Amino acid sequence: MRYVALIHKDPDTGYGASFPDFPGCIGAGDTIEETVRSAADALAFHVAGMREDGEDIPAPRGMDAVRADKALREETKDAFFVLIPLIEDRSAAKRVNISIDPSLLEAIDEAAKERGMTRSNFLASAARMLLTG
């Protein structure tokens, strides 16, 4: 699932991100890319808290629906619209079978070892970085 985030830039500060579907959930950064990563982390953390509290998670609205929401007119006026993936940490790994070029696998294993990571952690971390910008 991807949720709409509104990215704002104030003249004297960095960027901020907010989620119309999750009031109070915000991210921030000095660059848009950093703000998108911060927003993805904030979204996952916010949803985890909602789940712990037994709250319902809203279905994501599309950009057109957010833009058409009259209650958000002021908030959306000067905002960049970005879709942020909800990547929840479910604390349980799932075993999968993939096919990969042997030399690429060697490079992955070497890079993982240099970072003190397992192959699985390295691949999950790389995928998370690509998915969140």
UniProtKB/TrEMBL annotation:
Matching Gene3D superfamilies:
3.30.160.250, Met repressor-like
Task: List, for all copies, the residue spans of the domain called HicB-like antitoxin of toxin-antitoxin system.
Answer: 3-127
Q: Which residues cross the membrane?
A: none
Q: Pfam families in the record, alphabetically? A: HicB_lk_antitox
Q: Which InterPro entries match?
A: Arc_rbn_hlx_hlx (IPR013321), HicB-like (IPR031807), Ribbon_hlx_hlx (IPR010985), TA_system_antitoxin (IPR051404), TTHA1013/TTHA0281-like (IPR035069)
Supply the name of the protein: Conserved protein
Q: Which GO terms describe its biological process?
A: regulation of DNA-templated transcription
